[in-house]
Predict the 3D structure of the following.
Amino acid sequence: MHFPLKLFSKVLWLAMTMILIIPMASAQPNTISFFVSKQGSDKNEGRTKDKSFASAEYALEQIRKYKSSHPDHLVEMLINDGQYYLSKPLEINFDGITIKAINERKVTFSGANKLNLKWTKSKNNLWTAKVPTGLKFQRLFASGELLNRARYPNYDPKILPFNGYAEDAISPERVKGWRNPKGAIVHALHIGRWGGFHYLVTGKDENGELKLEGGLQNNRPSKMHETYRFVENVFEELDTLNEWYLDQSSSTLYLNFGDQDPNSFVFEAPQLESLISIKGSMEKPVREVHIIGIRFVQTDPTFMKTEEPLLRSDWTIYRQAAVRFEGAENCSVSNSDFIDLGGNAVFLSNYNRGVKVSGNLMERIGGGAINFVGDPQAVRSPSFRYENFVPENEIDSIPGPKTENYTADCEASDNVIRNIGLIEKQVAGVQISMSARISVLHNSIYDVPRAGINVGDGTWGGHQISFNDVFNTVLETSDHGAFNSWGRDRFWHPDRKEMDRIVEAHPNWVKLDAIETTIISNNRFSCDHGWDIDLDDGSSNYEIFNNLCLSGGLKLREGFYRTVYNNIMINNGFHPHVWFKNSHDVFRNNIVMHSHQDIQVNFWGDKVDENYYTSLKDLQADQAKSVDANSSVVDIKFIDVATGKFDLISGNMNFHPLKLNDVGVRNTRLKSFLDSPHIPEIHKEGNVSKGAVFEWKGAKLKSIESLGEQSAAGLPTMEGVLVLELEENSPLAKAGIQKSDVIVGCQSVDIKELKDLQLVLKRDQYMNKLNIEVFRNQERKTMLVNL
C-alpha cells in the first residue's frame, strides 16, 4: 500500500512524543506527594494521607511554595474521592506537577456554588427561595440534573435545533405579555444556519419591541433566523415542570417543581468559567504538568463572550475552558471526564508544544470540546472577515508563521466527544486554527450541532487526522461537514475574478500558509446536513485516503493541491465546486455511487480518473464531461458496510482494502458505552436527475435545488435561480449579470424558485426594463435590465 513519506515522519514524531509525555503512573525518584481529602484540613501539613489538606486550592499554594525552593523536584497532588467546589481556578505557572485522582474519576472538580436554600411554596404553585444578595447564575442543577431556565418554547428533547424553536419567540404579541424582560437571552441560528447567535435583552423600546445587544458569535454576520429561535430567562414563561427563574433585583429564585419538595434536593449554580489553567508563555513555557483521572463539571456558560474572530473562518471563539493550556510544553490531561460544562472542555491557546489530550469522556458540553488556537499575530498578512482582504502589493510573501506563538505538535486522541454545543452551535469536537501538526487520532465524535472536526484555515497544515469515527454531525445547522475545513489564506479575495487573477499571477502564494500537507486517512465519517468530508473555500495541501463516507460524500471547493484516493463513498460520490484553473487537484482510485456533482467547474485539476463506479449510467455522465476516461464499472458486494469491506464480483480494481475495525476510541472503558453510526442500505444506482432548465433571451436558468448549489453560491438559504449559461449579447449580460449569479429578486418580488421568476417575466413581459436583484460574492446587487 502507498505509504506517504509525510505520514511516516508523522508516525515517527508521534512515537517520540508519546514517550516524552506519558503521564507518571506512580511516584518517581525525587517526587514529593501532597494529599487532599474531604476529611482533611488546610491546617494539616498535607504530606501524608492521614494529614491531608482539605482543598485543592490550598494544596496548590503549598506546592507552589515548595517548588520555589525545590524547582527540580517533581510534585504530585493526590486527591481522595469526593466533590470539590473550587473557589477559584487552579492556576499552574511552574514545572513538574501531576494532579491525580487516587481513584480515577471519583474526584470531581466543580465550578458551581452549592446553594443553601429554604424553599416555600407560593400561591401560584411555584416554589421560591432567597439566594445570597448579588449572586448571579445562568444554570441551575438539582441533585446533579440540569434544570431549564424559563423559556419559550418549552424544552423538548426530541426537537432540533435548540430542543424547541418558534417563529414568534420574540414577536410583539408575545413580548407584550412580559412585564420586564431585561436580562432575557435570545438564541437563534444564523440566517444560513451557519452556527448560532445569542443576544442579551436590555429592555423594550417605545414600540414595545425588544432591545438587543450581542450577536457577535459568528464571523459571517447576518440577521437571526426567522424560524429557528427561542428566548429564555423570562419570568412569564415559567410555565412548565423543572423550569426556574432568578429575579436578581429581589434575589428570589422561582422554581416550577410540581409536587416534589425541593428541600430534599441539592442545588448547585455554576460560577467559574475555568477549573484548571496551565499558564506559561512562549518565552517561559510551563513543562511537565499532567492531569489524570479528574471529573470536571458545572462551569459557567460563556456564549456571550464568544466574539474573537478566527481569521476568515465563519467562527468566533472565546479562549477559555474547564482546562486551559497556554505556554505549555509536554503536558497532558488524560483519563478524565468533562461533563455538564457551560463552555468549552479543553482549550490550547497560543504557544503550546507536545500537549496531549487523551482517554477522556466529554459530554453535555455547552460549547466545544477540544480547541487548538494560535495567536493571530503569528500569521503573516492576516484578515479576519470573509469580505476583507490584504491588498496585493502589501501581502507578505514569506512562507509560514511570523512567530512561534502558536500551538504545534500536539495531540487529541482516544477521546469520546458527544452531545456538545448544547448552547453554542458554531462548535466542533476538535477545532484547529492557526496551528501546525496537530494529531487527531482514534476519537469517537458524535451528536454534535456542527462539525465533528474543523480546520479553520490553512495555517500551517501538517495535521494528521486518522482513525476517527465521526457521525451524527451537522444536526442543527447546515452547509458543513463531519470533517470541515476552510482556507481563505493570505491570497484570498472576496471577488472570485480578482482571486483568479491573483493566483494566476502568484501561483506560489497558495502554499504560503498551508506549508505542510494535512493527512486525512482511515476515518469513518457521516454527516446529516452536508458532506462527510467538506474541504471548503480555499482549503489547500491535503492528502485524503482510506476513508469511508457513509452519507454525504466528499466535497472539494476552490483550493489547491488536494490528492484524494482509495476512499469509499456510500450512496454518494464526489462534489467538486468552483475549482481554480491549475488547481493541481487529483481524484483517483475511489469508489463512487453516483456521478460527480460538479458545480461551476471549468477546469478539472491534474487528474480525475481511474475511479470505480457502481453504475454505468453515472460513469457515462462523467465521461461526457471529459473526465474519468479510464475509470470503470465494477460489481461489488458489501460484506460489512460499516467497515467498507466488500467482495469484487466483476471488474478490475486497484483498490486497497480499508482497515477500519479499530476506528474510534481504543480505550476499554470508553468503548463500553459507545453509540454507532447509522449504516445505510446500499443503492448502487445513484445518478441524480437535474432540474428543469429555462431558456430566456440568451440565458439558461434553473432553480437552486441542492445543498451543493446553495453552498457554491454562498447563499443563506436554498432559494433563488442560478444563471447557468449566458450569451454575450443577452440582456442579462449587457446589464452586468454574470454566469453563476443567483437571481433572488425581480421587480420587487422575492425569487425563491424558477416558477417565481417565470411568473414575473410573464406578468411584466410588456415592459422594456426590469429591476433584477442577484446574489454574488456574498452580496446582493440590483441590476437594471433593458429588454
